[in-house]
Amino acid sequence: MNRIKRISTEVMALHKSRFGTDFAQNKTVLDDIAIVRSKGLKNEIAGYITTFIKREIEEQKEKEAQAIQENQSGNVTEELQEGILS
């Protein structure tokens, strides 16, 4: 596990609710939470956190869409079965 991922994971484990999908806001939150002396390192950590959260949100949306699609296809299948049995 590289340094950026390890540090980001540790910070998110403690303060995940404070981060969001905005890179600039995540940099500010990171300044409040930790002392990162290197501007480049801070930007990489904030970028990783931003990307991670965006990916989580996208995966959640995909799961919800898939669940809705499965539910709708299940309803169609039941309607077809009812039509055949009638």
Describe this structure in words.
- The relative contact order is 0.11.
- The model has no long low-confidence stretch (mean pLDDT 88).
- Helix 1 (3-15) packs across helix 3 (39-85) and helix 2 (23-33) packs across helix 3 (39-85).
- By secondary structure, the chain is an all-alpha fold.
- The protein has helices at residues 3-15, 23-33, 39-85.
- It contains three helices and no strands.
- It has a single domain (3-85), classed as Ribosomal protein S17 (Diphtheria Toxin Repressor, domain 2, Orthogonal Bundle), CATH 1.10.60.
Tags for this model:
single chain; about 90 residues; mainly alpha; Diphtheria Toxin Repressor, domain 2
Write a concise synopsis of the structure shown.
The chain is an all-alpha fold.
Number of domains: 1
CATH topology: Diphtheria Toxin Repressor, domain 2
Which percent band covers the strand fraction?
under 5%
Task: Please give the radius of gyration in angstroms.
Answer: 21 Å
Q: What pattern of helices and strands is seen along the backbone?
A: HHH
Low-confidence segments, given as residue ranges, are none
Global shape: rod-shaped
The helicity comes to: over 70%
Q: Quote the distance from N terminus to C terminus.
A: 60 Å
